[in-house]
Specification:
Elements: E1 10-13, E2 20-23, E3 31-33, H1 40-50, H2 69-77, H3 80-83, H4 87-101, H5 123-131, H6 137-154, H7 185-194, H8 200-211, H9 215-218, E4 226-227, E5 230-234, E6 245-249, H10 252-259, H11 279-292, H12 300-313, H13 318-325, H14 330-349, H15 356-369
Antiparallel strand pairs: 1-2, 2-3, 4-5, 5-6
Helix pairs in contact: 2-4, 4-6, 5-6, 8-10, 8-12, 12-14
Protein name: Tyrosine-type recombinase/integrase
Keywords: DNA integration, DNA recombination, DNA-binding
Organism: Mesorhizobium neociceri
């Protein structure tokens, strides 16, 4: 039978053979008390607990209340749709959603969005989460995109957790940015001068420039992908959901660079340790090669834009460019090539400004001036 103590709320426990004392008021969590009753160290902690000065934090992961925003996200994490995303995409989406969980529903308030019941998680809530990142427009747009995907999944007939996607009609912020800097011809030539054929940096440049592929693809290219002068591969991005397979003829300039460069066994590009690059590792490495060429504004991704723009500048159609980049719609290609298209169209449009009669009159004057009747 438990002993009774002169001081209130003291309980003892010796289930493991060691006698311990705790402070416990009602159904609150137990607070361990050092030593034995009556000692100074015991009394110090006891009276702190009695005055409510000691708080015991809950341990273990928080359990989401059923029907809340956090609960819905956790159901989404367990879905096949989420599991089929690329690992990097899953990681980023989790970070975005969980940053939304931690937002207070009202500035300075104690209630968080993670505990918001789904019936009241409306477009107004989505707009509030977006606007909290108004000074970081890409981050704000990332929240909208992530929320759209969660609720789009939840609205599926076979899932049927919600009936409305509150993020569907919330507009993205216009970033006002052109994205990655698109290399100019002069910048490409400057890089080539600093990194001639035979260097790993030049091989990397030409693989990016003449294939129009992302760095995540370029780091995987190897001799096994080449058959009869054609590069055969499936793009890394979206390979688990909507795989896109491409066949791209190898440009003579690229073939010359490959033939005269040190290449790995399984990949053309290898690290100093003879291993293949990761996408991020390659991006960081290539960034340093750009710095060596005094091109701090340039990046690997900018070459994809530059090559697309160069093709547009030379009259390539959007579908021709898409056959190289692997884009399934023209939206992104149009963004890449907007400036180049403007130059091509303006060049043909300027001829429409001239009046045919004026043109003929000027031609006659020119003939007379040169003494031809």
């Amino acid at each position: 039978m438990p002993r009774k103590f002169a001081q209130k709320y003291i309980v003892e426990d010796h289930t493991d053979g060691v006698l311990r004392f705790y402070f416990r008021r009602g159904k609150a969590k137990k607070i361990p008390l050092p030593g034995v009753p009556g000692t100074d160290e015991f009394n110090t902690v006891y009276y702190q607990a009695l005055r409510g000065e000691i708080k015991i934090e809950a341990t273990g992961p928080k359990l989401a209340g059923k029907g809340t925003f956090r609960w819905l996200c956790e159901q989404y994490y367990a879905s096949a749709e989420f599991k089929h995303l690329d690992p990097k995409t899953r990681q980023v989406r989790r970070l975005i959603l969980e940053s939304c969980w931690a937002e207070p529903t009202k500035p300075g308030g104690s209630k968080l969005f993670e505990d918001m019941p789904l019936p009241v998680f409306t477009a107004k809530a989505v707009r509030a989460l977006r606007d909290r990142k108004a000074d970081l427009k890409e981050a704000a747009n990332g929240r909208i995109k992530a929320l759209r995907q969660v609720f789009k999944w939840a609205c599926l007939p076979e899932v049927d957790l919600v009936t409305v996607n509150p993020a569907r009609d919330i507009a993205y912020f216009k970033s006002g940015s052109e994205g990655f800097h698109s290399w100019t011809i002069e910048e490409v030539e400057q890089f080539e001068k600093r990194h001639p054929v035979g260097t790993k940096a030049r091989l990397a440049l030409d693989l990016l420039l003449y294939t129009l592929q992302r760095r995540s693809d370029v780091v995987l290219f190897g001799k096994q992908h080449v058959r009869k002068g054609v590069l055969h591969f499936t793009q890394y991005k979206g390979r688990n959901r909507k795989p896109i397979s491409l066949e791209i003829p190898i440009h003579p300039n690229l073939q010359f660079t490959i033939d005269n460069s040190p290449c790995g066994d399984l990949t053309f590009l290898v690290t100093e340790f003879g291993r293949g690059f990761t996408g991020n590792g390659f991006g960081n490495w290539f960034r340093k090669r750009c710095d060596e060429a005094d091109l701090p504004q340039c990046s690997a991704h900018g070459l994809r834009k530059a090559a697309s723009s160069r093709m547009a500048d030379r009259g390539a159609t959007e579908h021709q460019i898409m056959s190289m980049t692997g884009h399934q719609t023209s939206k992104e290609v149009t963004r890449y090539t907007k400036a180049a298209r403007q130059k091509v169209i303006a060049k043909s449009a300027v001829n429409l400004l001239a009046d045919p009669d004026i043109g003929e009159e000027n031609e006659n004057k020119s003939v007379q001036k040169n003494g031809v009747v």
